[in-house]
Amino acid sequence: MATRRNVELQDGTTAHYRDASYYDHAYRSRRQDVAFYVEQARRARGEVLELGVGTGRVAAAIARIGVPITGVDTMDEMLERARERVQRLPVAARANVTLRSGDLRRIRLRRRFALVIAPFNVFMHLYERRDIERALATAHAHLKRDGRLVFDVLNPDPRMLARDPSRPYRCRPIKRPDDGKRYGYQEAFEYDPVTQIQTIHMLFEDLQAPGHVEHVPLSHRQFFPAELEALLHYNGFRVEQQLGDFDGAPLRGDSESQVIVARPVARRG
Q: Sign of the CA dihedral 78, 79, 83, 85?
């Protein structure tokens, strides 16, 4: 049973990121978070480490303002897309980006940074307490004493978590950039209240070949606000800001995201 669950979670961690061109296409209008992280990098006055760099959406924007950034990711497809993005930058900005393959739970670069970031729900792929602790240990190991850890995760929505997993929700058809074809698109939501993991089942139906459906799972560990603050506290961080959006609004029950700014504190013992 545990083996099957691990396989399902591995698929829920990677499937959505295998098609990097579709990923960029799907989130091409997502810019508010980019502006937020660029401003955090500007304020940090030092080098940045990005855990879960993906296709370089945030890293490229930070490099453009003259801030050196090292990006780490486990997905080869995403890193290749990030390299392509970096190559399109002006020469001076291009020199500010270093890309590395690595697991954010284990990587050690033996350097310290003014800012460590994990944008766009990266930490939601940390499904067990030990994974979260290892990722926070990575951040702690790479931060300067006066540095900051900044990341965002979704704010759990009880209505979304209570959706019937047997009922798919029909969305607008989409056009995929790899083949230029239109696909019918549906989503189904499955939540396990014990593990606090929700899997979104994305269903793509080829409109030119009805009945041919591609299933892409996306698994996210849900973090409730007080729980997240406690995890940070017991792993060497003090939360300075727990925001409800990228414009700096306070966190509320109906906020879509939790945006965290935390400072490392000295570990005891």
A: positive
